[in-house]
Amino acid sequence: MDALEPLEKSKQLLADAVFQYLGAAIIDGTLEQGERIRDAELAERLNVSRMPIREALQRLERIGLIEMMPSRYTRVTEVTDELVRASLVYAGYKCGIEIHAVLTSMTDEQVAEALRLLDAMDEAVGDVDAAIAARIAFSRYIASLVSENVYSQHLKDFDLALRRNLHHVGPVAPDAELHDNYARLREAITARDAGAAERLVRAQFGV
């Protein structure tokens, strides 16, 4: 935790700010897999009280970024093969549901932007790093169109976990299969066929 810097004070420095900050530190490796976290030490280092630290840690535990054993330890979880597989399944259903939810109400401009990002995914086939970046850009754009509702915070929180668990995971299908998927998804988006679009997006994650 030595690399963590104090958070700047604001009128509302609450658990959400600490949650986002610690989540980012876990994703970028500032807080390493398996590293133990002590809330008192963390509160002192970030220059905040222990209450928002505890609330943020509980929230991080719910999405699987940390594990807590009362009176024993709190530590960053490790990214196992099993966790990656489970995250791919969750991501496939999450992204599929999101495109199903928004496609029929998207404006022409939003459809055009989605198609542009989809074309970037197609162009990135064969380059793992570029493919991951393009997949994230497309998924985040679609997610940004989902209306705010009771589930929004839940989805946003789990998006943080997916970023950590899948940031290194490239496409799960052969290049030719991806090109075909993207071509058919392009047709589904243009036709605003929500059911077909959902199935095709899920297939990109092997679901």
UniProtKB/TrEMBL annotation:
The keyword Zinc appears for this protein: no
Residue intervals of the HTH gntR-type domain: 12-79
InterPro entries reported for this sequence: GntR_C, TF_FadR/GntR_C, Tscrpt_reg_HTH_GntR, WH-like_DNA-bd_sf, WH_DNA-bd_sf
PANTHER family referenced in this protein's UniProt entry, alphabetically: FATTY ACID METABOLISM REGULATOR PROTEIN (PTHR43537:SF52), TRANSCRIPTIONAL REGULATOR, GNTR FAMILY (PTHR43537)
UniProt key word Transcription: yes
Protein name in UniProt: GntR family transcriptional regulator
Alphabetized UniProt keyword annotations: DNA-binding, Transcription, Transcription regulation
SUPFAM superfamilies from the UniProt entry: GntR ligand-binding domain-like (SSF48008), Winged helix' DNA-binding domain (SSF46785)
CDD domains membership: WHTH_GntR
